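User: tokens in, sequence out, please.
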């Protein structure tokens, strides 16, 4: 009986692990995405910090309001500040591990957090990263 149970569990584990691999392969470079307190949208990607930082700067330069004076960047910590749709946006890119990077985006409009805009901007950065792969 225990041999049958062990064989069944092994087969179930093998089938579940293949499902997880397929899901992970479909997601590609992104490990996870979440919303932190303060309407900060965060994603972890399987890419080194330098290409993610370069893409984040390019994406934000495209999204920034023309009349706002462009984007302001700081190389350490890697931070971008600009205006998008009349909201103050901040993007942080952090090295998490070798070939793992965290991207955080927050937006504030009229002293109120704008989580919807932050999520849209994060998704745009992630989409642009996917096109470069």
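Assistant: Sequence out:
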């Amino acid at each position: 009986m225990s041999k049958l149970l062990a064989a069944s569990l092994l087969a179930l584990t093998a089938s579940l692990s293949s499902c997880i691999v397929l899901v992970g392969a479909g997601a590609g470079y992104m490990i996870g995405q979440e919303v932190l307190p303060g309407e900060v949208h965060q994603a972890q990607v399987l890419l080194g910090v330098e290409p993610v930082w370069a893409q984040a700067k390019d994406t934000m330069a495209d999204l920034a309001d023309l009349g706002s004076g462009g984007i302001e960047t700081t190389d350490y910590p890697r931070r971008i500040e600009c205006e998008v749709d009349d909201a103050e946006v901040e993007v942080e890119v952090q090295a998490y591990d070798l070939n793992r990077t965290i991207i955080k985006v927050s937006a504030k409009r009229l002293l109120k957090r704008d989580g919807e805009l932050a999520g849209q901007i994060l998704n745009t950065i992630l989409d642009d990263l996917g096109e470069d792969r």
